[in-house]
From TrEMBL:
Name of this protein: FCD domain-containing protein
UniProt-listed InterPro entries: GntR_C (IPR011711), TF_FadR/GntR_C (IPR008920), Tscrpt_reg_HTH_GntR (IPR000524), WH-like_DNA-bd_sf (IPR036388), WH_DNA-bd_sf (IPR036390)
Keywords (A to Z) from UniProt: DNA-binding, Transcription, Transcription regulation
Organism: Streptomyces asiaticus subsp. ignotus
CDD domains listed in its UniProt record: WHTH_GntR (cd07377)
Keyword Transcription regulation attached: yes
Amino acid sequence: MTATDEAADGLRAMIAKGELTPGQQLPAEPELCARLGVSRGSLREAVRSLAALGLLESRHGSGTYVSALRPGQMLAGFAATVDVLPLDGLLELFDVRRPLEAQAAALAAARADERVVARLREVQKRLAVAEDEAERHALDREFHSTLCEASGNEALAALADVLRARGSHYSIYGAAEADTIRLASDLGHEALINAMAARDPAAAAAAATAHLSQTEVWLRRYAPLPDDGPAAG
């Protein structure tokens, strides 16, 4: 283990034990170096690596602080990794994404109010008539993000968003069945909206599972190359 690794492990341990709390400024370098038994250079490298992972944040002219440690921040490093996955890796993630979004949909159906349902209907209405692929991608992501955020579980919503992002690089709308794919995707969204409106967690989970399973089938069938276009779902 390098000195930088030792410094990073030491800082993570201090955060995990509550010795450094969210939003707290790190002690002065000499104090940390003495406590961790590392040089200033190793400490600074460790701080940079932990900042990249979302654990720490540097504030110009003020110093380095423990981040708020919110799920979205903590998943930043994971998001960068997911965003370069080849198609076979993305397809493996569907085994994670399906149950994750099914749980999010179930929680959202149990907790959502009329404002959430109305927002989903409005987004889907725009999505159904959108012709530009970039616009469809943005609206599709807004739809699923809204649904997952309505679950009330920030960690679940943040992780689902990370897993969903890579799919936007694999377009299936250029396939021979493009019209069928669009219609089925829109119907999948409608099923989710109806389950939300009915406050039916089981129906919402089933609709999310069916919707994502169909998207996975299309991706496996057409095996598109990565580009800037959106995948359904």
